[in-house]
Design goal:
- The protein has nine helices and seven strands; from the N terminus they run E-H-E-H-H-E-H-H-E-H-H-E-H-H-E-E.
- The chain has about 250 residues and is α/β, with parallel strands linked by helices.
- The strands form two sheets. Strands 2-3-1-4-5 form a five-stranded parallel sheet, with helices on both faces. A two-stranded antiparallel ribbon has the order 6-7.
- The C terminus is likely disordered.
């Protein structure tokens, strides 16, 4: 656990389990509660040289003939390159919802035969998350990228799934059934997250309106959080729809 003002929350699990949807929903809901929050996905592809190398490795083949250990060293370099900015954001009070992190490197490295102790050593200097969730279940294969190494190699994916489960037990990651409904998963995550952010939220009186989130297509597998910046008022047939967020609130009469 870090000592920064912001909280570092990580979602782990193999690909195509809906982690992106849930990470963005969680960030949206925290922002709606007045908690400055950002969504982050590792690896960071716009970091040079690590990001470009990893993107090519995942989507264009192993051009450099990297061994599993060499690959994980580059993943670790990518996380290390972003570490300073990550800490700056957290120290400034921004919560970070990260999809994948050090545990991802451990799991995929173990699955590829890179050596567990080696992987733990090269990642040991990196910031520890405040809370981690492990998504597990049957993959949504219709969302898989055909050319993505981590979404097409079924044998490797199965090994990595079991590595995630072993690591989750070792590190105490909160396990999430990824095959529940989107709302069920979100509510489960929210119950755990507010345990560590609740002190900061005590002055926030208005709870998020889940119906509004649904209408804004945040709960939409094809386009998660696509319309979060469009505002809370919806104009339908030229009539303004107003929602009561508090039972004591008065609706305008004209």
């Amino acid at each position: 656990m870090n000592n920064c003002k912001g909280k570092f929350i990580v979602l782990y699990g193999i690909n195509n389990l809906g982690k992106t949807t849930q990470a963005e929903m969680l960030a949206d809901r925290l922002n709606l509660r007045g908690q400055r929050t950002e969504y982050l996905k590792y690896p960071i592809y716009n970091l040079e040289p690590s990001g470009t190398i990893l993107n090519n490795y995942l989507r264009q083949g192993n051009f450099y003939n990297l061994t599993p250990r060499e690959t994980q060293i580059i993943y670790c370099l990518n996380r290390t390159q972003f570490e300073k900015k990550l800490i700056e954001k957290l120290e400034a009070g921004t919560n970070i919802i990260a999809e994948d992190y050090t545990g991802t490197g451990l799991a995929w490295g173990i699955g590829a035969g890179a050596g567990e102790q080696f992987l733990k050593y090269i990642n040991s200097h990196l910031l520890k998350e405040d809370i981690a969730f492990l998504f597990d279940g049957e993959r949504f294969k219709n969302a898989a990228e055909n050319e993505h190494k981590h979404e097409t190699d079924e044998e490797l994916i199965n090994k990595v799934r079991w590595a995630h489960l072993d690591l989750g037990q070792e590190y105490g990651w909160t396990k999430i059934n990824a095959n529940q409904s989107i709302e069920q998963i979100h509510n489960r995550l929210w119950q755990e997250v507010i345990k560590i952010i609740k002190p900061k939220m005590s002055t926030q009186k208005l709870a998020p309106d889940f119906k509004w989130l649904h209408e804004q297509q945040i709960i939409n597998q094809k386009s998660p959080a696509a319309h979060r910046a469009e505002g809370q008022a919806k104009i339908i047939n030229q009539k303004l729809i107003i929602q009561r967020l508090s039972p004591i609130a008065k609706l305008p009469t004209r």
